[in-house]
Amino acid sequence: MTNKNNSSQTKSSCCAANETCAPKVNRRQLLKGIGAGMATMTGAFTMPAMAGPFSKEPTGPTTDGPIPIDKKLSADWVESLYARGKATTYKGWQQLQYIGMPISGIGTGTVYIGGDGKLWVWDIFNEQHEGVVPQVYEHPTLRNEHGDNKIKERNGANYISPPAQTSPWHFEQGFAVAIEQGKNKVRRTLDHNGFSDISFKGQAPIADINYYDASTKINVELEAMTPYIPLDTDRSSYPATIMRYVFTNKSTNAMRLSVEGWSENPVLQNKAEQQNAHLLTSKYVDQGGVGFISTAVGNDSTAQQAINTLPDFGSFSMMCLDSKSSVAIDSELAKLTANLELKPGETKEVTFIVSWFFPNQTALYKKEHKNIKRWYASKYDDAKAVALDVANSITELTSLTKLWRDTWYDSTLPHWLLERAIIPTNALQTNTAYRFDNNRFWAWEGVGCCAGTCTHVWHYAQAVGRLFPNLERDLRERTDYGIGFKDNGAILFRGEYNNKDATDGQAGVILRTYREHQMSPDSEFLKRVWPNAKKALQYLILVDAQGGMPDGIPEGEQHNTLDAEWYGKIPVLSSLYIAALRAGEEMAKVMDDKEFAKLCSGIYQQGQKNILKLFNPKHGFFTQEIDPNHADAIGIGEGCYIDQVMGQWWANQLNLGRLYDGKTIRSALSSLWDYNFCPDMGPFRDSIETPSAKGRTYALAGEAGLVMCTWPKGGRQGDWEKYWQYGYFQECMTGFEYQVAGHMVWESDHDPEFLTKGLAITRAIHDRYHGSKRNPFNEIECSDHYARAMASYGVYLAAAGFESDSPKGHLGFKPRMTDKGNFKSAFTSAEGWGAFEQKGQSITLKLHYGKLTLNTLSLRSGTRGLVANNIPPTVSSSHGKASISREGKDITLSFNQPLVLSANETLTIEL
């Protein structure tokens, strides 16, 4: 049987040379090569237009298939990709009902704040389940392995049928305001049941919800957050949420308010009697406020000993930071009340801290993990201690969290891009990620799915290494080069949860090692891991040498992230390998291991040439050279595969330079746009005749996406549909899409069309996750809050042209998106973060947090603001003189003395 999901050309299964920079091209001119016809993006409160459905009228022999060459993107929509815009605001229950923004600390469980300000999900009780809200969706056509149509979470149920604001693990908890105006008294719960006029703006890590009641003319603003401070992992790991309500009387009459916060005792989840225990709630008073703590007590010592180890045993607290507030406790419910009086036009606020303490994580199935507790158990005894700690530092915690939020969004980059780049990072604030009480970082691929901080998934995730680099360093030291490290240098790609290495994951660990070195203050981390990092690279070299001498192209069995063994010469795995060789060479130089540096360089130079043999000039993309001894094994064959030049994507982020011929790489990226970017996934999915071959549904009809693999030129070998992994090829998975999108943005230096294409792919994801359809804060692949989606941060790095090598004291900013030559963005380094701004000939580097040591600063010239010909060989800054060197359109400032900035200090340079 032949599938029809290809262009009309074929019948198949689906559809560092010297370089010069391309001249600037008018953005509207680019559309001639990209297409025209897509609807214009509408306002913040309406459903955005997608890239399709597109016109069905034929426009040529290569555009008749379900993935047309002509994408028909309208000029107005393309312009909207670049527009600064405003923060996304949702309004109306249709758009608010699906919102679930994680608002818990790193590794503390999952707590959502809903679009109406209601806290929901409450997945803090250490239950093992796949997905935030596990469910089964009855699909109209697909069948599972049992032959029925009940499709579970792993197959995209939460994408197809997103859960609205409910929680199967809920307990009664909420907030309300009672309003008294003269003889009139009303009580409004602070959610959609109490207010009909609600708007939600979620600029992670802070949610801002606004309520208005026309009858009483009261306005309520909720600022909700958990402390979130990049580089400060511990103070970003509170099992707590801060709810700050601001009340404004917009009437002409005075009003009295009673602000309430209440909760059931959730400990033991309604099983206290079954466990021979009883629930206990008590009041506490602190100079900063009043609170209550709920727990459970065994009826005797034996019962207490039994419940102490249960996953849902612990404590729960709510605190009001108003010393005059009161507590009312009955057998089932505890309530805090703060009283306010508001004159007409007056504003007052009330802040609550909600905290929890359920340390007995039992969701991980390895027996050696059963007695390991959550990290916060190493610091606190109960939820009250958590609340008091937050209360005592609340001014600093909230101000730093807001400072990061403001630094991130105070940028010249579009709001929509900033939102989508940072949103997937919230996987750290869900049960995708764990911190153990021995300070080890551990993670699933997505909530409850696929154990062991999988190397071949997590190496796509660029956010953690930049925002919380100590977590990634811990993964290298304790897991990849520790628990999961074999004597021969192989790295088990799931740590203690499997007994196999993956070629892409192995190379990814080496590349991440170099990144973690660059995000360290000195070389001490690299010194510690170098012996095993070197051995891990030597293992890949031995894989390469199986057919004789290493030539830069691995062969033989190569397990990879599509959960199968591929054989032969595979472009993506070869590109990652030669990128790892380059990173290994640079690390060897740091370690003064000249012999190994020379070995890496020699093999890399062979791979640099040999990988080009996998490029098919007739196709315009790289293809797999299939091993004849495994001709029937699944692979991509002559398919156009999404990750085919991924090694260069990695090299860009590590400032490793061009790995191999740039024109060839850009041809491959162009082919991905032509053959894999689908403006409407409906016709594409309908064209796949075999239901099992459709894969999982992560993009629906009317939604655009970048398909994993197509065969536009034919040439697929073997009956691959017999493999369950074949379905992957038809899917849209955001982490892979971000990888290509970010790579295109990097390559826009040489071809301006790539900037529009990279943004369009990223925007397609952003639009798929619009709040009117599903939770915009949950990117799904295999399970919820999938780690691979953190590749989104790589798009941001590419747009900023960010470079960092903290041991060398180096930063670089070579932006590819500017506002009339001006640029501003946030940055992170090993020990500090802040904002970079380029305005004309003026450069400003302001440190907001930590410290920054700087020896060199690289900048991009050739924009409207920075004219290279006018730059002198030396320059004076606010912190000393610097010499200037030029390379093409880039300049590097080398300071005469190492420059050290502390928090709130600013470096200014006039060129």
TrEMBL record:
Keywords: Hydrolase. InterPro entries: 6-hairpin_glycosidase_sf, 6hp_glycosidase-like_sf, GH116_catalytic, GH116_N, Non-lysos_glucosylceramidase, TAT_signal. Gene3D superfamilies: 1.50.10.10. Residues 501-794 form the Glycosyl-hydrolase family 116 catalytic region domain. It comes from the Bacteria. One of its GO terms (molecular function) is hydrolase activity. Residues 100-284, 301-392 form the Glycosyl-hydrolase family 116 N-terminal domain. The keyword Acetylation does not apply. It holds the Pfam family DUF608. PANTHER family: BILE ACID BETA-GLUCOSIDASE-RELATED (PTHR12654), PB1 DOMAIN-CONTAINING PROTEIN (PTHR12654:SF4). This is GH116 family glycosyl hydrolase. It comes from Thalassotalea nanhaiensis.
